[in-house]
Amino acid sequence: MSQGLQLPEELLNEIEYILNHLAEKARTDTILLADISGQLISIQGIMEEGTPAIVAALAAGDVAAMAELSTRIGESDPHGSFFHEGETKSIYLHNIAGSFILIVIFRTETPIGLVRLFAKRAVEQLHPLTKKFEEVMGPPKSYNPDDFTKGITQELEDTFPDD
Amino acid sequence: MFINWKLREINLKIVYYGPSLSGKTTSLEYIHSRTNPERRGELISLKTREDRTLYFDYMQFQMGEISGLTPRFNIYTVPGQVYYRGTRKLVLKGVDGLVFVADSQIQRLQENIDAIKDLNEDLVELGFDPNLVPLVLQCNKRDLPGIMPVPSLKHELGLNGIPTFESIALDGIGVLDGLKSIVNAVVIKARGNISPNPG
Predict the structure, then answer these.
(1) pTM of the full predicted structure?
(2) ipTM surpassing 0.90, yes or no?
(3) Domain B2-193 maps to which CATH number in 3.40.50.300, 3.50.50.60, 3.40.50.880, 1.10.110.30?
(4) How far is CA B38 from CA A159, B34, B60, B116, in A?
(5) From the CA of A111, how many Å to the nearest CA of chain B?
(6) Which chain A residues in 97-156 lie under 8 Å from chain B, judged by CB atoms?
(7) Of B39, B128, B199, the CB nearest to A159
(8) Model confidence over B100-119: pLDDT tens digits?
(9) Which of A2, A139, A147 lies nearest to residue B5, judging by beta carbons?
(10) Cβ(A146)–Cβ(B187) under 8 Å?
């Protein structure tokens, strides 16, 4: 994980297929897949611009805290799932092998049992795919990484315009 | 670092680390206030009732496309208080670059030293080589009396040779210089990690 992840389009398509299937079967609003450091990997459903990244970052904090709590009460496998029940929307978080997080947001009318059932199946399908994430994969053949550092100065000026 | 080749986005994580009350959150608040509103996300702060950082502060900003990739920077601060070490460690997961915010006051030297020691230990435990993670030193509170000369502070922290910026975070002085320095270092390192296509 320290070297980072580079995911090709084909693998992301497979992930999206699984997330879409889960959304359809469990009647959820939004599903996100993030890595344990809080980086957003994929999203199914619509959220306001910028919000998915925040949700992923906060979920990573929550999962880490829950894993630590589990350990403190003597649980040997802290890689479980938990959910927050809200008034109109609830959140279900599933820690995938200690490396990734499935985040499911759904309306409270949707039975939690339904979400749990299909989320568990999705995790079983995602687990072998996430193992592939650990392999660092290269960019498409058309991409020349030598050009990447060019233009950073101009972009910094545009991002912090009044400095 | 996470590269999504479908969306052509590169996500990079920068963490502001340092002892309690050294100015990490103030620095991030200033950065957020000065970031082009079209390129920044919301600033999220998880604070205690006493207005101290509990989990972390977080913001994201993105740049325009650079050579076919859109960089998105996820900026975190850690809670500085000693008993939040577990939280600091989780925030460091997947870090691409670090800004160490030191409190320049002489009486805070030991806290700075303890924080840099914790940082190195946490990085090792997370599988990093601390010498290979881009790092910038931000010597904060330069306007206060009783501050250490920068060379002495760097020496005490074992950070000779690290890019260093003097700052007064409350006024924003030096904060963006430090950020730009770490962004450059992180981008250069990320380029090295975009490995050639094996296929």
Answers:
(1) 0.85
(2) no
(3) 3.40.50.300
(4) 9, 11, 11, 35
(5) 30
(6) 136-141, 143-152, 155-156
(7) B39
(8) 999 999 999 999 999 999 99
(9) A139
(10) no
